[in-house]
Design brief:
The structure is a single chain. The longest helix is centred in the N-terminal third of the chain and has 14 residues, at 24-37. Helices cover 3% and strands 53% of the residues. The chain folds into 2 domains: 6-349, 3 Solenoid (Pectate Lyase C-like), CATH 2.160.20; 358-452, Sandwich (Jelly Rolls), CATH 2.60.120. It has a 29-stranded parallel beta sheet that branches. A 5-stranded mixed beta sheet has the order 30-32-34-37-38, with no helix packed on it. The protein is mainly β. The chain is built from 1 helix and 38 strands. The protein has one helix at 24-37, and strands at 6-9, 18-22, 43-47, 50-54, 58-60, 67-70, 76-80, 88-92, 99-107, 121-127, 133-144, 150-152, 160-166, 169-171, 178-180, 188-199, 208-211, 213-224, 227-229, 234-237, 241-245, 248-250, 253-255, 260-265, 270-284, 288-311, 316-333, 338-340, 348-349, 358-361, 366-367, 375-378, 385-388, 399-404, 412-415, 424-426, 431-440, 443-452.
């Protein structure tokens, strides 16, 4: 059954698309007509191509099921000429099931970070209860010259849930792109961003700042350029289920200021990264950098992550850190990036999980590497021999079983070259095995020893 949708054209109310005439009253009148003729729901406000000058905020009253639609992302431009004013402000809780699409929302003058209400789409509490806003979509829009593009008043306990932000572009922002952080905290069940581009040049705060959600999904979101000093590019906090799929950050400069900072941080959150890339990240300041940080009671699972950074003033850079590291596979860390912070390796590291392969060794001394087969067998000995365990690339869980399969009257010494220094000698005239496990990067422990018949 087709929806009976009322369509309102803003130009019928006096809006002029030339960019010189103040269209504020025309938009306000069109919105009022949309509500009355749409019988509260299923109305559509159409904004033809052109530049529309406004000088005040446009308040969206309580409605459901409505759509505000431009001609195209670059064709329809609504430009705010008054500093520190939203473009569209939602002020009545439970306004839901709406869409804003196909337009550019920007400011005539670039807004500084002090203008904290200069957000094209701004959620506030102007009337009613603080129940929040839900089930809405922001689609195919560009946000420019603002403080944040989409912003929830951070000083009010409002929630936004069932949020879908798709195919949007953010650029020339002084704060960031999206900030949905209620204060005091209140639950926000579902928030997702898909196919979005965030140009971070000029941002002084977090590009993405989201909190207190059941589920957050970022799918194919790209962050490009920008400089962040002591502040992460993205923070998603206190969320039960966070998934980043095919997301990318590139050409972002960090400055640790001699301290510790992160590029993406997930405190008190459970996060899964799938097919993500963090590349060409220059780092200044000489401090400690975590590209992905799920510390502070965070949980992290990685299924595909490529990292590449450059230390310009010393310090260290680590691809991932977590208080509870569940699993990792296909995690690539180009030097000088290390894969894990000390003590934070995953319970299961698929990349470094050894296969039960066997290498037969000739009658010679051997020094192993971390990439060698788990089982090392000596079938013949014509002299006392030594096999030395790896001293580089060692990780917790790495394991080797040394097999003396000859009763020749010579010894086979397993040399632990690390500080643990747990050497074991398989005696002459016997067949024997010993298994060593690494408990850390600097410690080998013999966990089993057997004489064979």
């Amino acid at each position: 059954m087709a929806i009976n949708r009322t369509v309102i054209d803003v130009t019928d109310f006096g809006a002029k698309p030339g960019g010189s005439v103040d269209c504020t009253k025309a938009f306000i009148a069109a919105i009022a007509k949309l509500k009355s003729d749409g019988n509260i729901q299923n109305g559509q406000l159409y904004i033809p191509a052109g530049i529309y000058k406004i000088t005040d905020q446009i308040v969206i009253p309580f409605m459901t099921g409505f759509r505000i639609q431009g001609d195209s992302k670059g064709g329809t431009i609504i430009r705010q000429y008054t500093n520190n004013k939203p473009i569209f402000i939602f002020g009545t809780s439970l306004t839901h099931s709406w869409t804003i699409s196909d337009m550019t929302l920007d400011y005539n003058t670039a807004q500084p970070p002090a203008n904290t209400r200069s957000a094209p789409i701004y959620f506030d509490l102007l009337s009613g209860t603080s129940d929040g806003f839900f089930n809405f979509e922001i689609y195919n829009c560009t946000f420019r010259n603002a403080y944040y593009g989409i912003l929830l008043n951070p000083k009010i306990q409002l929630a936004a849930w069932g949020v879908s932000i798709r195919k949007c572009t953010f650029g020339e922002m002084s704060g960031g792109a999206v900030k949905l952080i209620p204060d005091p905290a209140v639950g926000q069940p579902i928030i997702k961003m898909e196919d979005c581009y965030v140009h971070c040049d000029g941002m002084k705060e977090r590009a993405i700042f989201i909190g207190y959600c059941d589920t957050v999904l970022l799918d194919s979101v790209e962050f490009n350029k920008g400089s962040f000093a002591g502040t992460p590019q993205m923070e998603i906090t206190s969320c039960y289920n966070v998934t980043l799929l095919n997301c990318r950050s590139e050409l972002v400069t960090l400055d640790t200021k001699g301290s510790t900072m992160s590029l993406w941080t997930f405190p008190n959150a459970s996060v899964q990264l799938i097919g993500c890339t963090l590349t060409n990240i220059p780092i200044n300041g000489g401090g400690t950098t975590y590209l992905v940080n799920a510390g502070t009671n965070g949980k992290l699972t990685v299924s595909g992550l490529m990292t590449d950074a450059q230390l310009r003033a010393g310090g260290t850079v680590t691809a991932t850190r977590a208080d509870d590291y569940l699993m990792a596979c296909n995690l690539r860390a180009n030097s000088p990036v290390t894969r894990y912070a000390a003590g934070s390796g995953p319970r299961l590291d698929v990349d470094q999980l050894q296969r039960p392969n066997l290498t037969d060794r000739s009658d010679t001394n051997v020094t192993l590497t971390a990439a060698d087969a788990k089982n090392q067998r000596f079938k013949t000995l014509a002299a006392n021999r030594t096999i030395t365990l790896p001293s580089a690339g060692v990780y917790a869980g790495l394991e080797f079983t040394i097999i003396k399969a000859s009763r020749a009257n010579f010894t086979l010494t397993v040399n632990d070259a690390l500080s643990s220094n747990n050497d074991v000698v398989l005696p002459a005239g016997t067949k024997a095995t010993v298994t060593f496990t690494a408990t850390s990067a600097t410690d080998w422990q013999p966990i089993s020893y057997s004489l064979l018949p």
